[in-house]
Amino acid sequence: MFFDRMESGRASISDAVYVEVITGLHGTTMPTILAAACQAMVGAITTYETGDMATAALAVAGVVVAIVRLFEIVAFRRRLACPPQLAPAEAARWERRYIAGTVVTALVLGVFAARSIVLGDALCSVMAIGIGFGFGAGVVARLALRPVAALLDLVAIASPAAIVIFMQPDLRHIGLGLLILMYVVASFEMVRLSFNASISQMTLKRQFEQLSRIDPMTGVSNRSVLATDLPPMLATGMVAVHTLDLDRFKEANDRFGHPVGDALLKQVAGRLKVLTAADDLVVRMGGDEFVLVQRMAADAEAMAQRIVQSISAPYEVDGQVIELGVSVGVAVAPDDGRTAEALLSRSDKALYRAKQERGGYVLARDLRTPDIRASGKPLVGGLAA
Prior knowledge:
Layout: H1 2-12, H2 15-25, H3 30-50, H4 53-81, H5 88-119, H6 122-142, H7 147-166, H8 171-212, E1 221-222, H9 224-235, E2 239-247, H10 249-256, H11 258-275, E3 281-286, E4 289-294, H12 300-312, E5 315-317, E6 320-322, E7 325-333, H13 340-356, E8 360-363, H14 364-367, H15 371-375, E9 380-381
Parallel strand pairs: 1-3, 7-8
Antiparallel strand pairs: 2-4, 2-7, 3-4, 5-6, 8-9
Helix pairs in contact: 1-8, 2-5, 3-4, 3-5, 3-6, 4-5, 5-6, 5-7, 6-7, 6-8, 7-8, 10-11, 11-12
């Protein structure tokens, strides 16, 4: 049941949050350094007191693993500082490396604690087991969002000591073994609770983020989305920005009332969504103004024609047939601009010209062609409003 919950929880984490989680795992080197330092210190003391070279070898192994993990963390940070941004598939590879490092560290610490118990030095055993408990606490804190990795770490660190302890079936060893097992169970319960709480918070955060991007009237995106989504779209290549302004909407709104006006805006938004592909963007800027961002912009003019034809078709609201017009300004990247600000500015200028011509569409490229007006060719295409 819980592992099913963990799988569904991971699926509910967005790619951006997942990359953030993996970045957080590599966010500090201090736990790795402290674990290695503690193991080296306890290993040196135990070796000095008992002369056991196996303990010395385990201490050296712990330090070597820590050094390898530190190099891995530094490599991740360097990768993060270089473009392009970390993709989920690449983040998954870094996650597997990180988890492999923590499991090996946990196993070395577990065997280290087990060896100290075999040696029979009480103080050395307490110190070695204490390192394991401290590492387990860090696992609970750092790996709550990767619960399978947390479970592997907790089992790896506890199993060697528990096996050795239960091989000595006197009351004191049985009590110590039970304490270690209860510690593992309690730690994993904390991981479970932290995981469920974190997933719930992330789900709520994602829902609020989505709501903050939606225009409540029409259900399409609001203008804030342009600032976040348009620049990445421009980075992919040719993009067309169609800026729309409804004609005669104010007259219809004044004549039939605001509820009818609201219904018209919803229908306009619905028609625009029908025209778009899955990776296009429809934005209500406010009032009766919309922006349609077309990712595959090779047919930008054909899209402008479809917009004019669709939006200019009659609407029926509460038994009333209402006709609107639309003016469209079209700017295409990279020819009309390489930034979101430039494209929106030039599509606005093209929209202004279309409104002067009483509807239809105007391409921004036509405004910068000096011989068009002299040649008598029309600037405005599509249907007049």
